[in-house]
Amino acid sequence: MSESTATATATRGATRRAGRTAPAPRRSYLRPLLLAVALLVLLALPLYVEEFWLRTGFAVAGAIVGAIGLNLLVGTTGQLSLAHAFFLAVGAVTYTFVAGESGGIGLADLRGLGWPPLVGMVAGVLLAGLAGLLFSPIAARLRGIYLGVASLALVFIGQHVLNSWTQVTGGFNGRSTPEFSLFGFTFGNTDPDLFVLEVPFREAERLWYLGLALALAAYVFARNLLRSRPGRALETLRDSEVAASVMGVNVQRYKGRVFLVSSMYAGLSGVMYALSIGSIAPESFGLELSVLYLAMIVLGGLGSVGGAALGALFVSALPLVFQRYADALPLVGGAGEGGLAPGEAARYLFGLAIILVVLFQPTGLAGLAARFRRRGRDPGGGPADRSASATSDSTTSVPSDPPAQGSTS
Amino acid sequence: MDGVSAAADVRSDVPPVLVEDVTVRFGAITALSQVSFTVEPGTIHAIIGPNGAGKSTMFNVLSGVYKAAEGQVRFGEHRLDRMRPYQIAGIGVARSFQNIALSPAQSVAENLMLGRHHLTRAGFVAAGLRLPRATREGRVHGGRVAEIAEFLDLGDKLHTPVGVLSYGDQKRVEVARALCTEPRLLLLDEPVAGMNAEETDRMAEAVLEIRSALGISVILVEHDMGMVMSLADRVTVLDFGRRIADGTPAEVQSDPEVIRAYLGSGDEIDPSEAAEAAAAAHPSETPGTTS
């Protein structure tokens, strides 16, 4: 072997990198082009499609924000949380309280601050974050399933508060959500009346753009996060807490931080959920919602931001679509008719889809998409099977001596 | 590989490591019992011993993963036995793992960038919003990571997910990741275990180059006796959690207690390993003078 020329390169920062540096991953122009086209289509959609699809789109956007947030916690960091519904509720209630007016009918004496809805939205995100911060000392000390059980408590606390704090939440009847508005522009049917290319832009059209913008921002933020310093630290601490801490990652602080970020995503998602339904009620924020969000990220592919978005699309849109096309679908009946209720049918389908994913495609929809992308590019299937290697390779990620005291070292 | 070469120039900020009377207990089992040794700045110090001797436990104490029940570990003015693992990383102590502890789905470059964690600052907000300082930081450190990868023959695999690399490559990524923290003290836990002869030679060469070019201290746990004897400036031998010898490779080789530890009660020792140890201990003589 030759003398230490390589050392000089490595250690003294000489510039011998020209010859053998690795080729960067291939960049194709197809991808940005496709993204641009997709964005244009999404932007133009309100001109062509009917209100139902736009309303569904906004609901999906809200679910995407929430699913991305949960995926940062569960998929990327390996921390199970069942409290997502609670943080959605904090966001939704805060928005309704801050932006809503006082008053009410009959029994319900409702309070509200009547502040601008944008303030309500920001307050919803911040308060959900604060709730996450208060819980994060617990989150930082527990891992995996233990955190899941501990976080379950928050859902039940949330249910109790939603049902009993009537002045703020509207109690078990719930209360209606104030319309969103941005610097005097209302995301409602009028005020101002708006026509684009002679198509009336009413509440559904306006909310569509709001949802698109928020979901896109949530997506980009998470993508950036995962591709940089904090994201690498989170992924490593999922794979081996000991390795992460020995490499200089303050494991407890990072677990707390990611819980905070995840609950802020949930807060925004809660505000969008409230806007999408037009009202808040305790039964909307039960354990079932937490489980639906987990279903989204498992179906979409744990750890993948795009996967979370796909999973959210599938899980949140399916019941709505079933409801609308109940007549046309076999086995599915409308309200009061024979056959399965649309919501039930959708649930059966999630169940089936989750079983299929766990059995045949553990990397979820994101892994499936990656497989098709690769096939399109090189038929042989490149060596860089990023997603497959994540699950099929089990030789790594166990440090030589896991500390006896587990995560609380 | 020729014999031990003295460090070219020891970095001035590399203090000695003083391990003093360290005892580690797990319940009733004493894994380490009053172990002491000193690692002089800029030296390669090997810790050897049969399986279960406490070598990995010692490493876990040095990197803060285990807490010592008694005794202390000093590194300059720092007390490693009182610090958390991430704090120890922050003062320039890096470690590679015996059983590879990399993130298989991440690329080599991403795994190596984790080594830059304590040298970089970008937090959740800066990273999520791609603030200019975060991207600049990533670019600068990415360049250094590429250099270190090149040094360990990983230059053409930077963008390959670690999970699909060969075992030898993964071991090299482990060492490269530790190097990426710009350590003053490098802890290598069996860096050549499972490697073939050629890979082992290359790794031994790399360890020497690291020491001579960077002037840092290296502590090495290793089973490959040939490698230990040719690389190490000093050797500490552990057996059943006790220090049974400490000295230069030549001194340790002729220590009767070391020979007994390796050859004596052979129930738990791989025969080939024992033969290797004996061959290294007595290059010119026939092994097995004691039973």
Task: Describe the model.
The complex is a heterodimer of chains A (about 400) and B (about 290). With about 400 residues, chain A is mostly helical. Chain A is about 65% helix and about 5% strand. Chain A is built from 17 helices and six strands. Chain A has helices at about 5-10, 15-20, 30-45, 50-75, 85-100, 115-140, 145-165, 165-170, 205-225, 230-240, 240-245, 250-275, 285-300, 305-325, 340-360, 365-375, 385-390; strands spanning about 175, 180, 185, 195, 200, 280. The model of chain A is unreliable at about 1-25 and about 380-409 (pLDDT under 50). Chain B is an alpha/beta fold. Chain B has two domains: about 1-90 and about 185-285, P-loop containing nucleotide triphosphate hydrolases (Rossmann fold), CATH 3.40.50.300; about 105-180, no CATH class. Chain B contains eleven helices and ten strands. In chain B, strand 7, helix 7 (about 195-215) and strand 8 form a beta-alpha-beta unit. The longest helix of chain B has 20 residues, at about 130-150. Chain B is globular. The chains are: A mainly alpha (about 400), B alpha/beta (about 290). At the A-B interface, helix 1, helix 9, helix 10, helix 11 and helix 12 of A face helix 1, helix 2, helix 3, helix 4 and helix 5 of B.
Helical stretch tally of chain B: 11
Side by side, the strands of the main sheet of chain B go 6-7-8-3-9-10
Report the average pLDDT across residues of chain A.
78
Mean of all residue-level pLDDT scores of chain B: 84
Q: Kindly identify the CATH topology of the largest domain in chain B.
A: Rossmann fold
Greatest interface (CB-CB under 8 A), with counts per chain: A-B, 65 and 79 residues
The portion of residues forming beta strands of chain B comes to: 15-25%
Gyration radius from CA atoms of chain A, angstroms: 24 Å
Radius of gyration of chain B: 20 Å
User: How far is the N terminus from the C terminus of chain B?
Assistant: 31 Å
Number of strands of chain B: 10
User: CATH homologous superfamily of the largest domain in chain B - what is it?
Assistant: P-loop containing nucleotide triphosphate hydrolases
Strand order within the widest beta sheet of chain A? 1-6
Amino-to-carboxy terminus distance of chain A? 43 Å
Please provide the ordered H/E string of secondary-structure elements of chain B.
EEEHEEHEHHHHEHEHEEHHH
Which range best describes the helical content of chain A: under 10%, 10-25%, 25-40%, 40-55%, 55-70% or over 70%?
55-70%
Q: Tell me about the biggest sheet of chain B?
A: 6 strands, mixed
